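Batch job 17 of 40 flagged for manual review because the log was empty.
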Amino acid sequence: MSTKLKVHLALLLVSIIYGATFTLAKLAMPLYIKPFAFILLRIMVAIVCIFIFHSIFVKGRIKDKKDLLPLLVSAVFGVAANMMLFFKGLSITTPINGAVLMLNTPVFVIIFAAIVLKENLSIAKITGILIAGFGALMLMGGTRFNFSSETVLGDIYVTLNAIIYAFYLVYAKRLMKKYHPLTVTLYSFFFGFFMVLPFAFSEFREVQFAVLPDYIWAVLAFVTIGSTFLTYVLNAYALRHADSSLVGSYIYLQPVMAAIIAISTGKDSLTMDKLLSMLLISFGVYLASQTKFLNSSFVKKSV
């Protein structure tokens, strides 16, 4: 199996996991566990899982002390601020507003990648992201999307989260090339734990673990292991072998996967509009993954 195919399969699996997480996490939050407490639990479980996996298969460490600062930055943007802004924003705004605003991520990825990594902004990437963005916008509500005074603060939080996560996708790429992705992820989560702890400790103490139903334990296991540990590892692998813009563009597949899961479980029905949206998103992601399109780009090559 080629590396390119492995990257696409990894990103596809991430989209599937996140699609399921959107439905499953709502079963636990906020009735059984509050957002910040959920984030702290996710980080703690992820650290244990990553440490075990890392100790067995990788055994790498950060050799250059000057890389500790970039790791701290990655922890801020990729773990702490990313998770807290999104969950806090989602608790204030509506799900449709939050989902649509998160579609800003690939746009900011392209901007940061062009500035920081000097990645080539081909017409394929720009066209693909625009097509996928339109499809995702239609899938997540179309004309029903709206802003109001009650949701504006949450909308700001989610938008800031989109910008922060986009920066993380670009910023962490250099570390992923120098060290094993799992090593970078382990250190980022370790530092991120201490950043989140002051905000989440009080909420974590309120969780009544002894009386949680079995299905909630199953949800917690899926979200903490699957949508935290596994997705970060898969994204880290993809970042090491692909452009940051490609990794960011796969965010458009997440609402598709969420819709498929909802339909298959009887929570939603398939309509022509939804089918068209899914096709647009898939085609857009395909275009965004191409390196050449019409033999031109928005960034001239140096000679």
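Reviewer: the log was empty due to a logging misconfiguration, but the result itself is present. The chain has a mean pLDDT of 81. Unflagging and moving on to job 18.
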